[in-house]
Amino acid sequence: MTDTAIIVVAAGSGTRLGRGVPKAFAELAGATILEHALRGLAASGSTASVVVVVPVGFEADASAIAARAGVGAAVVAGGATRADSVAAGLAAAGDARWVLVHDAARALTPPAQVERVRAALREGALAVVPVLPVVDTIREASDAGLGAIVDRSVLRAMQTPQGFEAAVLRRAYEAAADARGASTDDAQLVQALGEQVVPVAGDELAFKITTAADADRAASLLGERGSAKGAAMDIRTGVGVDVHGFGGDAPLRLAGLEWEGQGLAGHSDGDAVCHAIVDALLGAAGLGDIGGLVGVDDPQHAGAAGSVFVRAALELLAEHGWTPVNVSVQVLGNRPRIGTRRDEAQTALSAMVGAPVSVSGTTTDGLGAIGRGEGVQAVATALIRRAH
Are 209 and 351 in a shared domain? Predict the structure, then answer.
């Protein structure tokens, strides 16, 4: 008997997907959505019993799919609502200490996300939810039209699997027996008990397949191999651009090195090369930019070296399961002459990033502010891969 049960909710009708079958049984890249989801759980390497909850009449199909995915699963019929389906899964989960509730529609969820949830439970959390920052501008709305912009810095998008001390989740379902049909989130029911819900980092790949556009995106990411380990999903590129003007009395720092001449103006040390690398890495992983990472005027970063921001970006990438493959940077400006210390710059930056970094320099033939010698611009391209 394992200490963890994973309930895979696959009982949705899939009306918005428009495939004519329940969503989990629609095919993407040569396999059903349910099979992709189960393969992802199997790839996590964690020992857990699996309960798959499906629409009435699809039990045999689900058992065959689980077998193809290499997962030994108990299959049960769901109910009229998601909450009813989770309750059916709980009833089949046995005496496991912890329960993870996962949407089959989040079929590309990386194994590392499953492990983050389980790790938080092992460390003592009673309820755990993977979340992502909300990046879109959000407005209130009413029949009268759009209202005020909501402060998105305090908003998080919820994902699965959500993890719980099994006894706590059962108690939450019993307490909400009359109202749970309206709930689409298990953590909400646990919070209603007054229990704390602990957030862990989510992942953009754990998006929910709901519409035809979502399915197209998932199929593209899965690639020809039809697996969450497909090359199209493992590799991403990003571009970063940064510009700083000359000014101030600070030393000139660029590409992690100190150069002769007037320094670059900025809240930090103005190292445009390092800043462009940060934006390229974050952009490749879909994690925003340097401003969102460390802010643009945080007092603790006054005069900070570019390496500080690169390290912060690498830590965030690692949290989301990404690692750099290589970075290429081109520096535009009349000075300093990058070619005179190219090897030194490449060595410093490669050590900083933990992957090969190439550096080149050019001018703008006197055009624009850069051509007039007013500052330096850097353009970086980063290649990252999923860390397995």
Answer: no
| DSSP calls for 182-224 | G---HHHHHHTTT---EEEE--GGG----SHHHHHHHHHHHTT
CA distance 193 to 129: 16
The amino acid that residue 369 corresponds to is: A
Same domain, 271 and 169: no
Question: Domain limits at 338?
Answer: 235-386
Quick: pLDDT tens for 106-140: 999 999 999 999 999 999 999 999 999 988 888 89
In a shared domain, residues 242 and 222: no
| Residues 70, 32 within the same domain | yes
* Tokens encoding 330: 């081109």
Q: Say if CB 8 and CB 104 are below 8 A apart.
A: yes
For residues 225 and 243, membership in a common domain is answered with no
Q: pLDDT tens for residues 318-372?
A: 988 899 999 999 999 999 999 999 999 999 999 999 999 999 999 999 999 999 9
Residues 174 and 105 placed together within one structural domain of the fold:
yes
In the numeric block, which tokens belong to residue 194? 């007054």
CATH number of the domain that residue 165 is part of: 3.90.550.10
54 lies in the same domain as 69: yes
Question: Which CATH number characterizes residue 329's domain?
Answer: 3.30.1330.50
Number of structural domains in the chain: 2
CB atoms within 10 A of CB 276: 27
For residue 214, give every residue at least 6 positions away whose Cβ sits within 8 Å of its Cβ, in sequence order, or none: 17, 207, 208
Single pTM value for the model: 0.60
Burial 116-143 (b: 16+ CB within 10 A, else e): bbbebbeeebbbbbbbbeeeeeeeeeee
Cβ–Cβ contacts within 10 Å for residue 255, how many? 27
Element holding 84 (H helix, E strand): helix 82-91
Q: Which residue has the tokens 């912009």?
A: 149
